[in-house]
Amino acid sequence: MRLDGKVALVTGAAQGFGWGIARALGQAGARVCATDVNTEELAYSHQGYEDDGSEFLLRRLDAGNPEDFNQVVHELVDRWGRLDVLVHAGVVMPLVKFEYTSLQSARRQLDICLGGIIYGTRAVWDVMKNQGGGHIIGIASGSSFRGYVDEVIYCAGKHGVEGFVKALAFEASPYNIALNTIGPGKPIKPTGVGQSEVDRMSDEETAGWTNPIDLGKAFVWLANQPPSRYTGLRFDAGPIIDTIAAEGWDFEFTPEKVTPYADDVLARFHWQANYGKE
Predict the structure, then answer these.
(1) Helices 16-27 and 212-224: crossing angle, nearest 10°?
(2) Distance in angstroms (rounded) separating the CA atoms of residues 228 and 133
(3) Separation CA 88–CA 205 (nearest Å)
(4) 180 near 231, Cβ under 8 Å?
(5) I need a surface site. Which of 11, 21, 90, 149 has the fewest CB within 10 A?
(6) At what angle do helices 103-131 and 152-172 cross, to 10 degrees?
């Protein structure tokens, strides 16, 4: 499945899930701007994109800064003429109990996790409207549904991203802009471990982690769908890539094939179909 002619912007792309997503989109033929606030790790990823033969840019972007989004989006549109996919994977996740969390830390976490998708969406909104559509994708996790000790602010942010996607999907639909979230759906590298550190680890140390480039194929699949087909939904990359491996890219859609939370997908379909009628 190809994304030739498409342009994608990925935040949090210096390492981990965001890095794998950006690489997968590039390998599928998209022009990719990979961004991160960690310029050292971001520079380290340069060789991988070159080895893929991808057309890419690496740019510093602080997901908690709206002006950074505006500047990068402006540059991409000037350079490539469009922007089809925004993936917000940037996040900070300090593991600390709420009573020891400073207000400054709480604001920073929320500004990146939830603020990032809001700022990014605002920056790409008119571009996608004027070109006739696009995909905006946030990152989901178990924290999007549940609560965890030492992750209070992170969980609040992830819950907020789901609410943003659910609600804005209605307003974006007339413009053919889809909003969704995708979780990893399989074990991945811990957030605090850098990509350069991973490359120095033994196979035994990383054996339990799924290659994030493989998981990134789920984003390639979703970016290939017409924006009007799926919006306001939460998917998971693990089940999607397993389904692709078993049935091919053009598999017949059922909720069970794209997430372990099939009931949630059905509930969202029902809400969308009956919004304002019940």
Answers:
(1) 60
(2) 9
(3) 28
(4) yes
(5) 149
(6) 20
| Nearest one of 111, 49, 86, 103 to 165, comparing CA atoms | 86
How far apart are the C-alpha atoms of 98 and 125, rounded to whole Å? Answer: 34
Residue in the structure block whose two tokens are 């997430």: 259
Spatial CA neighbour of 142 closest among 166, 118, 167, 159? 159
| Number of helices (H), then strands (E), in the chain | 11, 7
Tens digit of each residue's pLDDT, the chain (278 residues): 899 999 999 999 998 899 999 999 999 999 999 999 999 989 988 888 999 999 999 999 999 999 999 999 999 999 999 999 999 999 999 999 999 999 999 999 999 999 999 999 999 999 999 999 999 999 999 999 999 999 999 999 999 999 999 999 999 999 999 999 999 999 887 666 666 677 777 777 676 789 999 999 999 999 999 999 999 999 999 999 999 999 999 999 999 999 999 999 999 999 999 998 86
With CA atoms as reference, report the closest residue to 228 among 172, 273, 276: 172
- Identity of the residue numbered 200: R
Q: Are 223 and 135 in contact (CB under 8 A)?
A: yes
The number of beta carbons lying within 10 Å of the beta carbon of residue 231 is 23
Token digits for 235?
A: 């998917």
Catalytic residues: 154
pTM over 0.70: yes
Q: Specify the residue for token string 């991203």.
A: 161
**CB of 70 within 8 A of CB of 123?**
yes
Beta carbons of 11 and 38 less than 8 angstroms apart = no
Q: How far apart are CA 213 and CA 186, in angstroms?
A: 12
